[in-house]
């Protein structure tokens, strides 16, 4: 089950409700893709927390940001906050490849993404966040 964050904004809606509304409002392949991304994230990490940040960006967190789900006219973009530190044996990252921190997956209409490879990438992001948090705790003690 997905836990909701508390960053629902002025409307009183929870982040999960805001993400539901975004999916519904898109009403096309982008909404379907965002819903698919959300399902894959929730299956890969049942403890994921959904947030709504930066005036309308779905964000999935576990001990830090895993990724965002941004929708544009031609792509749905999954930006992994610490993607540059992740191994990507399936070669899913296809955007934001030049930076030192983030990596992204741009999904275009009709494109299929290897679901198991994406789940592995999400789990690797969670493991990285968790290990970093544990390391910070050890250093502060």
The profile of the biggest β sheet is: 6 strands, mixed
Based on Cα principal axes, name the global outline. Answer: globular
Q: How many β-strands, per DSSP?
A: 6
- What is the succession of H and E elements? EHHEEEEEH
How much of the sequence lies in strands comes to 15-25%
Radius of gyration computed on alpha carbons: 15 Å
Number of helices: 3
Summing up helix and strand content along with how strands pair, one would put the structural category as alpha+beta
Percent helix range: 25-40%
Distance linking N and C termini: 32 Å
In round numbers, the mean pLDDT is 90
Which blocks of ≥5 consecutive residues have pLDDT under 50? 5-10
Strand order of the largest sheet: 1-2-3-4-5-6
Brief write-up:
The chain has 141 residues and is α+β, with helices and mostly antiparallel strands. It contains three helices and six strands, in the order βααβββββα. It has helices spanning 15-26, 29-44, 115-140; strands at 3-4, 49-53, 57-61, 65-71, 75-80, 103-108.
């Amino acid at each position: 089950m997905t836990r909701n964050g508390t960053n629902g904004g002025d409307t009183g809606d929870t982040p999960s409700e805001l993400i539901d509304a975004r999916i519904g409002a898109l009403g096309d392949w982008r909404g379907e893709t965002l819903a698919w991304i959300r399902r894959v994230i929730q299956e890969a990490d049942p403890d994921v927390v959904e947030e709504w940040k930066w005036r309308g960006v779905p964000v999935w967190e576990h001990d830090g940001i895993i990724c965002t789900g941004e929708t544009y006219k031609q792509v749905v973009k999954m930006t992994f906050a610490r993607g540059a530190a992740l191994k990507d044996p399936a070669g899913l990252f296809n955007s934001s490849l030049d930076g030192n921190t983030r990596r992204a997956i741009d999904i275009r209409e009709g494109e299929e993404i290897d679901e198991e490879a994406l789940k592995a990438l999400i789990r690797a992001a969670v493991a990285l966040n968790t290990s970093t948090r544990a390391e910070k705790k050890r250093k502060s003690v």
